[in-house]
Design goal:
The chain has 424 residues and is mainly alpha-helical. It is built from 21 helices and no strands. It has one domain. Helix 4 packs antiparallel against helix 14, helix 6 runs parallel beside helix 8 and helix 11 crosses helix 20. The longest helix is centred in the middle third of the chain and has 35 residues. It starts with a helix and ends with a helix.
Length: 424
Amino acid sequence: MGAFLSAFGLSLIAGVPIVVVLGLSALAYVAFNDQLHLLGAFPQRMISGVDQFVLLTVPLFILAGNLMNAGAITERIIRFCQVLVGRFRGGLALVNVMSSMLFSGVSGSATADSAALGSVLIPGMKKAGYDAEYAAALTAVSSVIGPIIPPSIQLIIFAVLSGTSVASLFMAGIVPGILIGLGLMAHAVYVARKRNYPKEDPANGREILRATAGAWPALLLPVIILGGILSGVFTPTEAAAVASLYALFIAGVVYRTLTMKVLAKVLYDTAVISSVIMLVVAMANIIAFVFTIEQVPQTVVNAMLEISDNKYVLLAMITIGLLILGALLEPIGALILTVPVLLELGATLGLDPLHLGVIVVLNLVIGLATPPIGLCLFIVCSIAKLPLERVARASLPMLGIALAVLILVTLVPDLVLFVPRLFN
């Protein structure tokens, strides 16, 4: 595995895209280990990796999110949250977190959340008297709720790699996502009182009705997705297809913001993003093949068990390792490298696959708001026009809240498994 690890590390340091990193690492393995006969199996492994019906959910959910973004959903969700909580001190901070929780049910992406909401809320919070670094940090950390509350691309990828039910994983992510949101809102109230941040005038009945009328068609999308899956009316793939059709109807007919030019761009962007994800999944099957040949999962598990056989010590080791990896790699690439090993270790520890999936994904998406590589941090810094150091420093208390929720759901599996058991 020396050639594999060397190629992987050097490619990563050189800034090569993750798809190429995985491909070069696999080629280095066969070239330097006299395994050239395995090359013929690589194309078949790639095809079998993406030849799974459940993977249709990925482009369909991405399409639904892009269509809703094209429908000017961001401003409508923000305005709806504003009339609900804007009257409290620090109301815009509460709007920020609440919008992330609602937006996650549409986009399922942390980067989409931080870019779409940040472009509106960060300038608005600065204008209202909030510290710029606080506004940016809150937007970055609250955006990690996106991949936890369903729909979630990361949870779908974990389900594909582990053979776990997508619907059950979606249900398992609901409570942890809500807990992070509530924790960030409590922190926002504390900071607002301490720094005397402003509150807005209460909205009157007409404003509430107008904001609700503008937002409810968009807010119905997560209800359709979750309600259909939880009630058993839809499979996740069918829910994704229905969500795409509904989003097309909302953007084109209800909001009337979807022109043919905008639709063409939406389809193009969806195709590009989906292609990258599918290529990564295809390469993941090759990496899993190499790991199986070299018995990497068993080797790593045995090495960890030699250090300690205490379940909580091993969970702490997993958490620390995944947090570091999440800060260095984007979540899908990190999932591909870790899931084969973690499934083996999870089976040894007796962890429920749903519990393990939420732990892994939550660890990795926290990395999106963690320096030095956290992509969401870079996005909000560019919007707020602030150096990374200032925003990273301001984000530490909020990252602490996300980590506290991570520790809680790691130690209390029922927080993750409650909803799946309720609807199973």
